[in-house]
Amino acid sequence: MALWKWVRSKIKATNSKSQEPDKVLPEEKGAVTLEAIKEKLKDIDDIKYKQANFSGKQVTIIYLSSLVEDKILRMLVMDPLSSTEAKNKKPEDVIANCQTLKHNELPKLIDRIMNGDTIILYPQLDPILAVSTYSVPQRSITTSESETTVIGPQDSFIESLETNISLIKRRIKNPNLKSRDFIIGTETSSKEFRSCYLSVK
Questions:
Q1: CA distance 61 to 49
Q2: What is the 3-state secondary structure (H, E, C) of 115-171?
Q3: Using alpha carbons only, what angle is made at residue 79 by residues 77 and 40, rounded to the nearest 5 degrees?
Q4: Rounded distance, CA 121 to CA 138, Å?
Q5: What is the pLDDT of residues 60-114, one digit of tens each?
Q6: Dihedrals φ, ψ of 84, to 5°?
């Protein structure tokens, strides 16, 4: 109980510090901008934004590290973008198994991210690409040996934090599911502590 009170106080303090006037985003029209994506996915510590260069253009790569394994991201996205064969080619001709999204499909784009896809966001009016990169990091999740379940999922948490977070996000595909890292301990300063909660406005 004391730990939960501490977590709530830390979340409340962070919210009060970062509280800003509500941003007016083109969300009603569903327009896709990097600012709109970051606003929808704020307070999610495992959302990643990487910058890359493709044919002289700076692109932003967006994905959830809890649902996308590094080697899969590198093999399907990063390596094709940086290859010499990619020069003077369209991005959809370089990256396999990608789909083009329209610039007025923000809810659909957020849904793709929450399902483990990687988004490649080009500046201005270039196409928005969604690449199927869903992969469960590290070892597979096993059935719980201490608690039996007759109906429902049979898997259980393991010792890996990222795998446990991926298990939760595979069940709750909602951008309102927030996750924040906290540093606890005065000697070890361990960061292996993450608070997950649903933000309800």
A1: 6
A2: CCEEEEECCCCCCEEEEECCCCCCCCCCECCCCCCCCCCCECCCCCHHHHHHHHHHH
A3: 30
A4: 27
A5: 999 999 889 999 999 999 888 887 776 777 777 888 888 888 878 889 999 999 9
A6: -70, -25
Single-letter amino acid code for the residue at 62: I
List, edge to edge, every strand of the sheet that includes 128-132: 47-54, 57-64, 117-121, 128-132, 98-101
CB 122 within 8 A of CB 128: yes
> Among 41, 62, 51, which residue's Cα sits nearest to residue 130?
62
Structure tokens at 193: 């502590």
Amino acid at 87: K
Tokens 């704020």 -> residue: 42
> Is beta strand 194-198 parallel, antiparallel or unpaired with respect to 57-64?
unpaired
Statement: the pTM of the whole predicted model exceeds 0.85: no
CB of 178 closer than 8 Å to CB of 197: yes
- Provide the Cα torsion 185, 194, 140, 77; round to 10°: -120
**102: CB partners within 8 A, 6+ apart:** 32, 128
